[in-house]
Amino acid sequence: MTKRPMIAVWFSCGAASAVAAKLTIQRYAATHEIRVVNNPVVNEDPDNLRFARDVAVWLGVEIEQAINPKFPSCDAVEVWERERYMAGVAGAPCTRALKKRARQAWELVNKPDFHVLGFTAEERGRHERFVRGERENVLPVLIDAGLTKEDCAALLVGEGLALPAIYLRGYPNANCIGCVKSQSPTYWNHVRRHDPLIFTERAEQSRRLGARLVKVKGERIFLDQLKVTDKGGSLKSLSFDCGIFCEEPPQPGSAGTEARA
User: Fold this and answer.
1) Model confidence pLDDT, tens digit, residues 138-147
2) Nearest 5°: phi and psi at 199?
3) Is 187:238 a contact under the CB 8 Å cutoff?
4) Count of Cβ atoms closer than 10 Å to residue 31 Cβ
5) Tens digit of each residue's pLDDT (9 = 90 or more) over 191-247
6) CB 180 within 8 A of CB 211
7) How many CB atoms neighbour CB 203 within 10 A?
8) β-bridge mates for residue 33, sequence order
9) Could you tell me which of 6, 9, 92, 78 has the C-alpha nearest to residue 42?
10) How far apart are CA 19 and CA 36, in angstroms?
11) How many CB atoms lie within 10 A of CB 165?
């Protein structure tokens, strides 16, 4: 019997990647082997684990884990400490260590023929950049279906799945809480208000490592210098989703300036 080509669906514990997995199974399960894979990160909201279990039941498949053997703890805090670096023009080391390197280790063993990610209709540009810079064999199932992030969330709710609790606390994605990829004072004050312990931990570590994570009026400052009245863009407009497509360095002229002292 001829081996069927394999599609790896990268599930990030977000609504979009959950729907992407569902569409992939519906469209390709008869002709392809479908593997749904997650990069676990302990710094995400604990309810992400509940959501992943619910999604696995909804999909009718096991969700596998891809872990970087150099960081079996899957802890971004450990990555920053060992690297002595949190974020900057080259991106965030946690993304490379816990997402990209973990994905590459999984690929080396399993050798997928195609990939599916949670790129939505409004993210066609990000999909095209990923195809140019990382992988050509990406199936844009959500883009082809014309589904936005909001569409994906509504679809899950309509199916009776409770969205990850982090969305209900006003965060724009299901990333780690206190994502160092964000420079926004609006975001960091949101973390301070809803998850004060994590804000305090990020402030202490970033000060100790010399990482100026937040930008206020064009100037990089430490988190412990951020005023509660400092504001940036609207939270819902921010886009720093942490997935295997997040490792591109900022383009010339972008806002991705150095985050170290």
Assistant:
1) 999 999 999 9
2) -60, -45
3) yes
4) 9
5) 999 999 999 999 999 999 999 999 999 999 999 999 999 998 887 644 555 655 444
6) yes
7) 21
8) 6
9) 78
10) 12
11) 15
